[in-house]
Structures are given as C-alpha cells and as structure tokens.
From TrEMBL:
Main location: membrane
Organism: Microlunatus parietis
Pfam family membership, one: BPD_transp_1
GO cellular component terms, semicolon-separated: plasma membrane
Single GO biological process annotation from the record: transmembrane transport
Protein name: Peptide/nickel transport system permease protein
Record's compositionally biased regions (Low complexity): 8-22
Annotated transmembrane regions: 45-66, 173-198, 210-228, 240-256, 346-366
C-alpha cells in the first residue's frame, strides 16, 4: 500500500511538473492548428480530395505545356472529329484520320487507318505560348507532326478545336474565379459581420438592412443586366475581374450574418469585458479577440462557398451571360453541348462537365473535412 501511494504521489508530482512546463517534462500543450490537422487527416475522403485538387490546379497552371494544340485554332478538317485512336504499332502513336463527305446524308465521316500511325513526340515543338503568362515557350508534353495530322485526345468541337486543350485552358478561369471571388467575399463578410455583431444598436440595424436589400436582389436579372451593359468586345481579363467582383458583392451577405451571430455570443464574454476595462479600443477588441474566435467558422463557410462560386460561373457562362467567346471556361465549352441532337452524336463535348463534377465534389468533401477539423467540439 505504501509503495502504491508513493508511486501515485510521484506520478502526480511529475504531472504537475509537466503541466508547469518544466524543461525535463515530456508533456506539453498541442497547438490548436495541430489538433485541426490531426482531425482533418482522419477524413480520408477530404485528404483524397486535397490531392485531386492540387493535381488539377497544377494541370491548370501548366495547361499550355500540357496542351498539344492551340485551344483557339480552328480546323475545318477536324469538325466534330472523334477522340484520336491510340496505337502501339511500332511505338506510341495515333491512327491517321481522313475526312470524307457522305453524299447521301450530307454529313462528315472520318476514316481511321492504324496501319501507318502518326508518331507521338514527347517534349516536342508546337504552338508558341507564354508559361504563367510570362515565359515564352513552344515545348509541349506531347505533340505530333502537324503536316501529318492532329492529336485530339477528347475529340474536337464544331469548329475543329481540340476539346482536350480547351478543357485544360478552361480550368484556369473556372477554378480560379472561385478562389478569388470567395477570398474577396470572405474578407467583406467577416469584417462587416464582426462590426455589426459587436457594435449593435443603430450600426447593426443599418448594416442588416443593407444586407437584406442586397439579398433581395434577384441574381439572374442582375447578371442579365450586366451582360447587356458590358460591351461584347470587352477584353477577357477585364470581364473575368468584373465577374469576380460582382460574384463577391452578392455572396458576402450570408457569411456576414453568420459571423454576426457568432460575434454577438462572444461580445458579452468575460475576456471581452476585461479587454474593454483595460482600455482597449473597439477595433482592437474586434481584431484581437472577436474575429480570431470566429476564424474556424469563417474558414469552414469559405471552403463550402468555393464550389458554389465555381458552379455559378459555369452556369452563367453556359446560358450566355457570364464569360463569352473568345474566353475559355468550362461554362463556355458546355454551351456546345446544349443541343440534344449534337450531344447524341458527339458525347465527348460533355468532358468539361465531367471536370466540373469532379472539382465541385472534391471541394464539397474538402469543405466537410475542414468544417469537422475546425469544430472545437469534434
């Protein structure tokens, strides 16, 4: 019994020393961000989604290098051409394709010949581009001799443009507009929602009435008005940033209201009262105490907002009031698949839609994982 008591006393003393943070102790605090990482890693689907999204963003960054053809190049000889047939006859290559006109049905058909394939050139020269918009280059991951034919991995559209190359380039707009738009909306929603919840009174009433007015504006007529006002020859970059800003200005209201509710619960906490008694200004209390406590909720909501913003751009571009030609986005590409008669004959035009589904699903799974990780009660 005595030995047991001594062991218990020594254990309690060792625990007290560990809690006090002595240098010899092996017990210490785990930072909050490490706890979040541990909880996030438990979600296998969220981790897999991160890997897939990182891969897709790398593909978007190196889209010109990975594209064997110029995405804007029109080729009448490949109008609605089916995906290239690959062969290993004598080495990696694609089958030759010859365009023929059916005089009976007045339609275009393609005859494939794999006996004399076209060789694939790895890291070969092709159309010129600027990597990251700065570095001039003309090397591509794989190409073919243009004098012999073209490689169309996912087939071609009605103008003979390579769907594979256009899908890769479309990811640069569709996948980044969500990140940029949500970043702006998150900053607006977090700051305005925190000020509204902390200030209360007249300030809170004014902010909430403004939020209600913005939320009452019908989105589709707003976009239709924007499409009518903006000139059709507006540069792609300018239109991209206009869409990003407008998406941000109509999506921050939901987050602002949620943050307001969180902050109203924190505003009467003891640490806020202590900071106020110590003479801290309202801005200091908001920036030092209130917003950091709402960060976990802000991050979770922002992650779940990214797929909604990407889907909004795709939908608006699909109906012709978002990004327009010559811009390349997944919504613009899906306009070619809007006719059921065309889609029945050329199903490869739906490839950009598959990319949208993959990205939206991964972001939703990632958002669920982040929400569970930042939840202090999980």
């Amino acid at each position: 019994m005595t030995g047991t008591l001594q062991l218990a006393e020594s254990s309690s003393e060792g625990g007290a020393e560990g809690m006090s943070g002595s240098p010899d102790s092996k017990v210490g605090e785990i930072p909050q961000w490490r706890l979040m990482v541990r909880r996030f890693r438990r979600s296998k689907l969220a981790v897999i989604s991160v890997i897939i999204l990182l891969f897709m963003y790398l593909v978007a960054a190196f889209a010109p290098f990975l594209s064997p053809n110029d995405p804007q190049e029109v080729s009448p000889d490949f109008k609605y051409a089916s995906p290239s047939a690959w062969t290993l006859n004598g080495g990696p290559g694609i089958c030759r394709v010859t365009q023929e006109i059916d005089p009976v049905n007045i339609s275009t058909t393609y005859v494939t010949n794999c006996d004399d394939p076209i060789r694939i050139n790895l890291f070969g020269q092709g159309w010129e581009y600027k990597l990251f918009g700065v570095i001039p280059a003309d090397r591509h991951l794989f190409t073919v001799d243009e004098s012999q034919g073209r490689v169309v991995v996912f087939g071609a559209d009605g103008n003979g443009r390579d769907v594979f190359s256009r899908t890769l380039h479309g990811s640069q707009i569709s996948m980044t507009i969500g990140l940029l738009g949500v970043a702006i909306a998150t900053v607006l929603g977090a700051v305005i929602g925190t000020i509204s919840g902390y200030a209360g009174g007249v300030t809170d009433n004014i902010i909430q009435r403004i939020i209600e007015i913005i939320m009452s504006i019908p989105t589709l007529p707003l976009w239709a008005t924007m499409a009518a006002v903006l000139p059709l020859d507006m540069p792609v970059t300018d239109r991209y940033f206009m869409m990003t800003i407008i998406l941000s200005l109509v999506t921050w209201t939901g987050l602002a209201r949620q943050v307001r509710g969180k902050v109203m619960g924190y505003a009467h906490a003891d640490y806020v009262a202590a900071a106020r008694s110590a003479g801290s200004s309202g801005f200091r209390i908001v920036g030092t105490h209130l917003m950091p406590n709402a960060t976990s909720h802000i991050v979770a909501v922002a992650m779940l907002s990214i797929p909604a913003t990407i889907l909004a751009e795709t939908s608006l571009s699909f109906i012709g009031i978002g990004m327009l030609e010559p811009a390349i986005s997944w919504g613009v590409l899906l306009k070619d698949a809007s006719r059921i008669d065309v889609l029945q004959q050329f199903p490869w035009l739906l490839v950009p839609g598959l990319a949208v589904i993959i990205v939206i699903t991964c972001f939703q799974l990632l958002g669920d994982g982040v929400r569970d990780a930042v939840d202090p009660y999980s």
